[in-house]
Amino acid sequence: MKGCEAIAEALCRYTDRQYTVPGFPVTGLGELTKAEMVINEKTALEYALGDSLSGRRAAVIIKNVGVNACADPLLQAVAQGLVSGVVLVVGDDPDAVASQTAQDSRYYGELAELPVIEPDASTCYTGVESALQASEMFSRIAILRLTPLLLEASADHNPVPRMDGRGRLSDRTWTMNGRVTAAEELYRSMFSWVNASPLNTWAGEPAGAGAAPGETRIITVHPLPEQAAALRTVREYGRTFVRDHLGVQPPIPQKRPQSMEDRGYYRTFCKECPFKPVMNILKDKGVKVICDAGCSVLVMNPPYELGLASYGMGASIAVAARSTGIALIGDYALLHSGLNALIDVYEKELPLLCIVMKNDCTAMTGMQPVYDPVRFLAFAKPVVCRADDERTLYKEIVVPDRPRTLVIEGTCPGGCSHETVEY
């Protein structure tokens, strides 16, 4: 069998859902897995994160330049955490055969502190399963780097058992600084994991990374096992990533994660926030929501504690469509990078209530004016109401069986700031 066929079978065995945005060299892989085509890579990864929150493993199959489009949730997920494994299957095109760049996706592993596995002909199945196990062990997305060297070559058919694990969401009592500290500690432990990984084999010089030829085989290309530091010759397909990272050490241990109680306070909405009735109704109904960037993220803090997760600007819509069914987003975040996801949700008729808090400004970053989102939501046929119309709010705030959009209008009080509550 071809490498493309082996990877496709492995993805179907070890994940529950597959998404794709076609592009060379992984268009055929998406077809073989019958992956769901998505409007863009960012939305696809957000769907996968929603699956993760719901206990489903998911794969996102994209080409190298597509990683740029999903960089925000890719990096945000490191500090936020996840539950079931998510693997970003990236097709690199080092010779720019059918791409506008020769981008090397392994560098995203370094940037975001992610496990990156690059299988060879003998590790297609173990590589996919190991990537998912690493995602769950270290509570972040794992990257599976593929190149034409593997996809077009013959590969071994050697399936391994599926062994689902469970990641963790960041502790909601931690500050953002605390979440980053905890994520860094997990990254530090990743170095011990690669040192013990059976994916790598050591048989002298030269070494081959991924599908590149060599006596020694390096499959865990980030972080690199410490044994690799002694190598003099490394063959790899793409840039000299492995060669340039030989001997890289794990980060220095940090202090324990900071909690809000350690800091002495938590932040919540402004005292005169017009959207407080929305939060009170959500709490009264006992529903969980996916928060976005902006003021909506404050619903994760006391006294509401309704937010299950937040994966960055515009991410709440697609994540919620595969998990809680309710997304809470501001008008600016919707227009910034949430509309593509909402279009995809409506096209697929996924059950989602998208709650848009329309305050006509960027409240957290200087109150700059924002375009009216209602003008761009004709396809969604939104219900529009005032933030103090509690009768309509109570009626409309339900987990639906189809996509629905609720635009809630309110005016931020001038001169106010988020309330700080001391412990």
Summarize the structure.
By secondary structure, the chain is an alpha/beta fold. It has helices at residues 3-14, 27-32, 41-53, 66-69, 71-80, 106-112, 124-138, 148-151, 176-195, 241-244, 260-263, 276-285, 316-321, 331-348, 390-396, and strands spanning 17-20, 36-37, 58-63, 86-91, 116-117, 142-146, 207-209, 216-218, 220-222, 234-235, 265-268, 289-291, 307-310, 326-330, 352-358, 361-362, 368-369, 383-386, 403-409, 419-422. The mean pLDDT is 96.
Report on the structure:
By secondary structure, this protein is α/β, with parallel strands linked by helices. It folds into 2 domains: 3-244, Rossmann fold (3-Layer(aba) Sandwich), CATH 3.40.50.970; 264-422, Thiamin diphosphate (ThDP)-binding fold, Pyr/PP domains (Rossmann fold, 3-Layer(aba) Sandwich). The protein is built from 15 helices and 20 strands. The strands form 5 sheets. A 7-stranded mixed β-sheet has the order 2-1-3-4-6-5-9, sandwiched between helices. A 6-stranded parallel β-sheet has the order 13-12-14-15-19-18, with helices on both faces. The longest helix is centred in the middle third of the chain and has 20 residues, at 176-195. 51% of the residues are buried. The mean pLDDT is 96.
Estimate what percentage of residues fall within beta strands: 15-25%
Query: Biggest sheet, in brief?
Result: 7 strands, mixed
CATH topology of the largest domain: Rossmann fold
Number of helices: 15
Q: What's the number of structural domains? A: 2
Which CATH class of the largest domain applies here? Alpha Beta
Overall geometric form: globular
N→C terminal distance: 62 Å
CATH architecture of the largest domain: 3-Layer(aba) Sandwich
The value of Rg in angstroms is 23 Å
Unreliable segments of 5+ consecutive residues? none
Strand order of the largest sheet: 2-1-3-4-6-5-9
CATH 4th-level superfamily of the largest domain: Thiamin diphosphate (ThDP)-binding fold, Pyr/PP domains
Query: What's the total number of strands?
Result: 20
Which structural class best describes the helix and strand composition?
alpha/beta
Helix content: 25-40%
Mean pLDDT: 96
